[in-house]
Design a protein that fits this description.
This protein has helices at residues 5-18, 29-36, 61-67, 80-91, 105-114, 134-154, 164-177, 239-258, 265-278, and strands at 23-26, 44-48, 52-56, 72-75, 95-98, 119-122, 188-191, 212-217, 220-221, 224-225, 228-233, 290-292, 299-303, 316-319, 322-325, 329-332, 335-338, 345-346. It is α+β, with helices and mostly antiparallel strands. The chain has a 6-stranded mixed β-sheet with strand order 4-3-2-1-5-6, sandwiched between helices. A 3-stranded antiparallel β-sheet has the order 7-8-11, with helices on one face. Strand 17 (335-338) and strand 18 (345-346) form a beta hairpin. The two termini are 39 Å apart. Glycine (GLY) binds at residues 185, 216, 227.
């Protein structure tokens, strides 16, 4: 995949200017990959306007040479932050940004001790990844297609007495076979009363006839995630299950209608919540409507009452209302959605009518 690393680094350099910095330390693995193309861990980028250093250890030196361009590769043998401090001194940078949400207190303290006369300032760089370019959108689109194919097939596998873990394994195996690098997050399979756990990762519980099974899963392609939830019923759904399913689906479809560039994240969340309020179910919708995703499964902005941002074209978000009722169960319906100036495009396209198998 041809990602435009120089455009990404140009944007980072604009941030360096705007924050009156000489350089930025990039440490979060997703950001190291985003700015350099390197897919490993335990590595740091030190980026200034006139230098790009890639600090890693012997496990990754060759890989870094293969996967990155225009970086000076520096191999450390006595500690990542020790080498980082040495490279900062060599660079002459005095005002340095670092990811305050990522670097631990101990790492920060050790760096500070080694760098007298250098100012370290926490900066936020994840937001540079919010708007996806064409190459990123095509990776996420592909991850969504892989998840769709896996869902279509896993339906043949689900029956009474199969465990949640077996369903999760089948889904993950199918996604791998169709090209996923790994699951985008821990696969959720929550059946029967476990459906009241929004994040009920799969257990050895056996699925029984008459139960809802909620599956929330994602594929990864070139590091980019997909995210989809479908809830199906094993056997005939009861009237109550049918009624709740219809209300959640109605809310989810309303979300798809109103997700649009320029709309407020907060307003989208509350409009969908309002739908569930009218169905008497809003008190069971206990999380926000959605989140952005890309190299990480949860990115900003969120579709949440706590988010003051507006959506912009080429953000990718989820629309995932759910209802969770203790001792009864629950369900969620979720799609990955590409934000546009007009109607949003749903990238996960598995059926959403209530499937009874
Ligand atoms: N699909 C997992 C989550 O959004 O938390
Ligand atoms: Mn999600």
């Amino acid at each position: 995949m041809n990602f435009n690393f120089s455009a990404r680094i140009d944007n980072l350099c604009k941030k360096i200017d705007a924050e009156n910095l000489d350089a930025v330390i990039v440490y979060k693995a997703a950001n190291v990959y985003y700015f350099s193309g390197f897919r490993g861990d335990s590595s740091i980028l030190l980026i200034g306007k006139n230098f790009r250093k890639f600090i890693t250890d012997g496990r990754y030196t060759e890989q870094a040479k293969l996967q990155t361009k225009n970086f000076e590769i520096v191999e450390q043998r006595d500690g990542l932050f020790k080498k980082l401090a040495e490279e900062i001194k060599i660079s002459g940078a005095k005002n340095i940004g670092f990811e305050g949400r990522v670097v631990t207190f101990d790492e920060y303290t050790s760096l500070k001790e080694k760098l007298s006369g250098v100012e370290l300032k926490s900066v936020e760089i994840d937001s540079l990844r919010q708007i996806k370019d064409a190459a990123e959108i095509s990776c996420i689109r592909r991850a969504c297609e892989i998840a769709d194919k896996a869902f279509a097939e896993v339906l043949n596998f689900i029956k009474p007495n199969v465990t949640e873990i077996e369903v999760a394994a089948e889904l993950e195996n199918l996604m791998r076979r169709y090209g996923s690098e790994k699951p985008a997050f821990d696969t959720i399979v929550a059946s029967g009363i476990r459906g009241s756990l929004p994040h009920g990762t799969a257990t050895d519980k056996k699925i029984s006839a008459g139960e809802f099974v909620t599956m929330d899963f994602g594929a990864m392609f070139n590091g980019y995630c997909s995210d989809m939830t479908r809830t199906i019923c094993v056997g005939k759904a009861s009237d109550r299950q049918r009624e709740i399913y219809a209300a959640v689906l109605d809310a989810q479809l309303h979300g798809l209608k109103i997700i649009k560039s320029g709309e407020s994240c907060k307003a989208i969340d509350s409009a969908v919540r309002e739908k569930l309020y009218r169905a008497g179910l809003d008190k069971y919708f206990t999380h926000s409507l959605g989140h952005s995703l890309g190299l990480e499964i949860h990115e900003e902005p969120r579709l949440s009452r706590l988010c003051d941002k507006n959506l912009a074209a080429n953000m990718i978000v989820t629309d995932e209302p759910g209802v969770y009722i203790e001792k009864f169960g629950g369900l969620r319906v979720e799609d990955t959605v590409l934000v546009k100036n007009g109607a949003a495009e749903t990238l996960t396209n598995s059926p959403k009518n209530l499937i009874e198998i």
